[in-house]
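Run log, item B.
One chain of 66 residues. Sequence copied directly from the ordering sheet:
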Amino acid sequence: MTAHPILLQKKYARIVALYAEQSQISLEKALDTFYNSEIYLLMRDGISDLHCMSDEYLAEELRKDL
């Protein structure tokens, strides 16, 4: 299942903002981390239904991946 591209972009923004807040890092660093993560690749390519997961869950998974 794939999500609408605009909705995905909004979800990416929410995840990055939450990740930056939780990790106490800049939005720029959080964005770089997100775009170089496996989570982003899976969501972008529609390989999994990660876009159905909550923003909080995905931000936490991003923190665990590092």
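Observations after the first pass:
- The mean pLDDT is 93.
- The chain is about 70% helix and 0% strand.
Flagged for discussion on Thursday.
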